[in-house]
Model the fold of this input.
Amino acid sequence: MRTLARTVVLALLAPGVAGAQRLYASNEGGNSVSDIDLKTNTVRATFHVGNRPRGMALSLDSKRAYVTLGRDDALAVIDVEKDSVIDVIPANKDPEQVALSTDGKTAFVSNEDAAAASAIDLATKKIIWSVPVGR
Done:
């Protein structure tokens, strides 16, 4: 059986991080994220984030990235400067994609297996609501 590896990318134009222009790529099959320097086209680091990383979103201040972890039913919170996971937040069943509210306080997640959409309060790390959206 052939396994399809999927990669999701998030461009990080984070001037607060040494003027870097970077790209994060989630490596779903490898349970990791790669940090790529766009100036040199090299991988700065690849680090473990959790099981089945997929969609990503960047915080308003560019200091944190949020990546959905489909098999962990969670969001990993990444410290962009350190390329490391600093927290894991429950995100309902099988999160696939994530987007942040305009104020950066809420994460909106699509939950594939649950056929739902969920909202997560990032300060309290609690699911505010979840609604069925159909398959």
About this structure: Residues 58 and 65 are 4 Å apart (CA to CA). The radius of gyration is 14 Å. The chain has one domain: 7-132. Residues 1-5 have pLDDT under 50 and may be disordered.
